[in-house]
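Quick start: what a row looks like.
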Amino acid sequence: MSTLLIPSASYLIPNFLNLKELGVLNSYWAFWLPAGANAFFLLLLKNFFDGIHKELFESARIDGASEFRCFLSIAIPLSVPILITLVLLGFATTWNDFYWSSLVMQEDKLPLAAAIYTKIIYPGSTINWNVRFAILSMTLLPPLVVFLFFQKYIIGGLSLGAVKG
């Protein structure tokens, strides 16, 4: 939890050096590995799993289910909404990331936000402003479509883990 208080700029260089040692610079692993080790995501997962009622697991154990079976049959189906939420947050974060992707990727593998800046928005560009804004508007469509597609899973998960009392 205390790692959430550390500003991301302070661990930028150690992350870069670690990825350089691993030999994954200029690959998509350099882009996704630091995003996957996010303390905020782990905190969300922990709070979600703490909120699952123990009675669900106890009733499965009474019926003869093992711990692994309880995990597969109860915890995984109930965790679909939080996993989809984490995928959405991770997608939105990496989709809009500019600085980190410019550090670890070459120009041929840049994500869309950084590539648009280097090719289209950069002050030396001669592209008309209306074309620039049209391209920027089109880059809003994929995150919007992803969110609209996964929204039903997030809302459906609100009552999925309810226990009748």
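That is the whole record. DSSP finds ten helices and no strands in the chain. The first helix runs from residue 12 to 22.
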